[in-house]
């Protein structure tokens, strides 16, 4: 039996206001995220993947064109769960903390350079997609990547550390077409550096279906 379910948000729907509204989270989590969960649950019976975790489903379907629909649903369930945890209502955003602070300075030269590259990835992604801070599985070097639609680092043998959702439903209610302003707010006011540090250190935070 599938263990896939819609996770609760890690904070109240109004907790990110005024940066992201309760209305946005109601639609984004309760409608969009829930739809991916429900569609994946419909696709799993008879697939042989019913008892697999989300990462296992993603890895099993990522390079199989015949399973593209299942990959899209599974990846979007995982991406959204990861994204919720990348934000915090408690003094989020700004310069990194913990081990990531030194590692970002080492691999990007400075936090400002990292911020520039991350914002550029998020704002230059054509159409729907994601901007990511990732690390190599071997060596731990940090880098920025952007992915289209449901694609994510798991499909590219990378470890996700931080993500910003740049599908329009993530920001359009609050920012309309001003994606750069949304990305600025994400970086300056919302990033959960404690969570990003945990993912960088390879700690399982009990989310994303692991």
Automatic annotation (TrEMBL):
InterPro entries: Mn/Fe_SOD (IPR001189), Mn/Fe_SOD_BS (IPR019833), Mn/Fe_SOD_C (IPR019832), Mn/Fe_SOD_N (IPR019831), Mn/Fe_SOD_N_sf (IPR036324), SOD_C_sf (IPR036314). Destroys radicals which are normally produced within the cells and which are toxic to biological systems. Residues 5-88 form the Manganese/iron superoxide dismutase N-terminal domain. It is an enzyme of class 1 (oxidoreductase). Keywords: Metal-binding, Oxidoreductase. It comes from the Bacteria. Residues 96-198 form the Manganese/iron superoxide dismutase C-terminal domain. Belongs to the iron/manganese superoxide dismutase family. GO terms for molecular function: superoxide dismutase activity. Pfam families: Sod_Fe_C, Sod_Fe_N. Its EC number is 1.15.1.1. This is Superoxide dismutase. It catalyses: 2 superoxide + 2 H(+) = H2O2 + O2.
């Amino acid at each position: 039996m599938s263990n896939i379910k819609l996770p609760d948000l890690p904070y109240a729907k109004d907790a990110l206001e005024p940066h992201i509204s309760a209305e946005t989270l109601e639609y984004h989590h309760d409608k969009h995220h829930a739809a991916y969960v429900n569609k994946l649950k419909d696709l799993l019976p008879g697939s042989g993947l019913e008892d697999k975790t989300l990462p296992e489903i993603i890895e099993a379907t990522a390079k199989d064109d015949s399973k593209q629909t299942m990959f899209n649903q599974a990846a979007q369930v995982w991406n959204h769960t990861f994204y919720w945890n990348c934000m915090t209502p408690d003094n989020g955003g700004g310069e990194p903390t913990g081990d990531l602070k030194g590692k970002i300075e080492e691999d990007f030269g400075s936090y400002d350079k990292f911020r520039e590259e991350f914002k550029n990835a998020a704002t230059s992604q054509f159409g729907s997609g994601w901007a990511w801070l990732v690390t190599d599985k071997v060596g731990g070097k940090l880098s920025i990547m952007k992915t289209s639609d449901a694609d994510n680092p798991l499909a590219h043998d990378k470890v996700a550390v931080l993500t910003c959702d740049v599908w329009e439903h993530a920001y359009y209610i609050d920012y309309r077409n001003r994606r750069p302003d949304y990305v600025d707010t994400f970086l300056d006011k919302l990033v959960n550096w404690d969570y990003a540090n945990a993912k960088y250190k390879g700690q399982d935070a009990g989310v994303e279906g692991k």
